[in-house]
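Write out this protein's structure.
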Amino acid sequence: MRVLVVEDEPDLASAVAISLRRDGYAVDVAGDGAAALERLLVNEYDVVCLDLNLPDTDGLELCRRIVAQPVLDGGTVPKIIMLTARGGVDDRIRGLDQGADDYLVKPFSLGELHARVRALVRRDTSATSAVIERAGIELDAGRQEVRVHGVEVDLTAKEFALLRWFVLHPDEVHSAERLLEHVWDEQADPFTNTVRVTISNLRRKLAAAGGGVQPIETLPGRGYRLRSDA
């Protein structure tokens, strides 16, 4: 899952980004509204953590633009969590009415932010808790643990993030480009074979734990798919 953190306080932005990356998310950071819009025009984000008090624009106006632009371009609207010191009921109502999906008042716990992000990325799937089960795979997003038919699998942060994307989108075909867009951040080199290598390592570990059964199949010329009936 790819997250954009829009926050003009460098220390807070860094803390949020580092903590989300430890949870396996691909994170980009923008210090103002202009930088956020620039990234949103070229990248497809799953979640935007949006500060309302930005130096160059009001966060509510930026929220309206984020919600409207993907619709105009035929894309999808990212989930938006507003992060702000404006904690009044009226402020929350205005934020939610402008298109925000959630609202978190500063100062906030990073653990609570992680839980809210997990809840948002599950919203459009059939997953109902932090523990997701697909094709014999049990993925605990809260504890960062994976088991295959009860056997614990040791994954790197990127392998875990990639598997989380697959279990949240079972039976869908994902091209390497789409995986790069949602699981890696803007620092990733699109001309490397990083997606192929990470998938290869992930498939090897899943097959070893699953007695040779491989739930992620390769579709030549199309991409990869996690079969829920594997």
